[in-house]
Structure formats: structure tokens, C-alpha cells
Amino acid sequence: MRTRSSTKQAEAALVDETLTEQRYLIVQELGAGLELEDTSFSGSPHHDLASDSAIDGFLKKSPFYNVMQRRWKLPWNYTKLLYGDFIPHSATFPPILRHFWRNKSAQGTRRVVDTHNTNLQHSKADSPSLNSRPSLVIRAEGPSFQLPDTEPGQKPAQVGFSNVAACIELQAEGNDFPASEQLVRAAIYAK
């Protein structure tokens, strides 16, 4: 029988406490569901989505996708993902950005960054313990984004939620990570 070390158990308990605190804050902030009378705006951010045929065409050409199995190819030793080895996966996303990013003059404004070991604080007003570590993020530059705030005397952070366009969470199959916790993380990232 294989058991977790006491260090791993303590880390898991700390993560559970932090997620519980974050869940409480997110639920309070989001409040009850809202219904909008005019829902036409909700489609506007998604007006330039790639068509299914464009996505299928990209996947057929991608060296990272197995068309027959309809799944992304895993590195030879995918168990490394369990231990935070995201390097093989971070190579998957830049070609997607290059292929589908419509504004060719803005190619350099989006970049995939491995952040699985980087604490991204939710907000300056929050406790420093309220942070997240998405596996990968799409770091963005432009008028809608800014470098994260840093304390005086600290090295300026290159990535934070203030300059992230998207968060990507990678999980290996077999990890016990309930859907409710996945939703909490997605809500935190979307905030």
C-alpha cells in the first residue's frame, strides 16, 4: 500500500484550507446569479471564434495532436505531469496562438508562460495567502493589460493576473480533483 508522506499531506491540507477561503470569497463576490434583459453583448467578445473546420484543419497538421484518438499527445513519460513537469505541454500552445491569432501585427503581444511554480496574487487588497498557480498562462501586452503591482524594493513581477489573457490548468488523469474544486479555480482565474 502506498501512502503520502507527512510533508505531502501537510501541503494538501494547506491547499485545501486556501481553496476553502478562496471559495468563500468568490461565492460572496459573485453573489446570486444575474439575468440580463439584453444578452446581445455576451456574444460580442466571441465574435471572431475559429470555425470547427479551421480547428479541425489545425489539429490535422499539429504534431501535438492525435487525430485518430482525438486527443493531445502526451510526452513519453506523462507521469512527469504529476510532478509539475509542464515543459512538454508549454510547447503545445504557442503554435495555437500563432495559427489563430488574427492580428498579425500584434503577434508578440501574447506569450505562453509556465506559472505552475509562480504565486499570482489575486488582488493587492487580498491577503498574500490568496494566490493561485495556474499551470500555464497567456501573458499579454497592450492597452488592456499592465504589469503586476510590486512592493517597493522588490523586483518587478513579469506576470500576474493584471497581464494575463488566459489561464490553462493541466491535470493528469487519475488526480483526485473534484469538479467543484475545478470550478472554484476557474472562477478565481476568471475574476
Tags for this model:
191 residues; alpha+beta; two-stranded antiparallel sheet; 31% helix; disordered N terminus
Question: Can you offer a commentary on this structure?
Answer:
The chain is α+β, with helices and mostly antiparallel strands. Helices cover 31% and strands 12% of the residues. The protein has a domain at 86-190. It has helices spanning 6-30, 52-61, 87-90, 93-100, 179-190, and strands at residues 65-66, 71-72, 110-114, 120-121, 131-132, 136-140, 164-168. Helix 1 (6-30) crosses helix 5 (179-190).
Beta fraction of the residues? 5-15%
How many β-strand stretches? 7
The mean pLDDT is 74
Q: Level of helix content?
A: 25-40%
Structure classification: alpha+beta
Ends distance = 41 Å
Please state how the strands of the largest beta sheet are arranged side by side: 3-6-7
Q: Specify the overall morphology.
A: globular
- Largest pleated sheet: 3 strands, antiparallel
Structure annotation, total helices: 5
Quick overview of this protein structure:
With 191 residues, the protein is of the alpha+beta class. The chain contains 5 helices and 7 strands.
Ordered list of secondary-structure elements with their pairings:
Elements: H1 6-30, H2 52-61, E1 65-66, E2 71-72, H3 87-90, H4 93-100, E3 110-114, E4 120-121, E5 131-132, E6 136-140, E7 164-168, H5 179-190
Antiparallel strand pairs: 1-2, 3-6, 4-5, 6-7
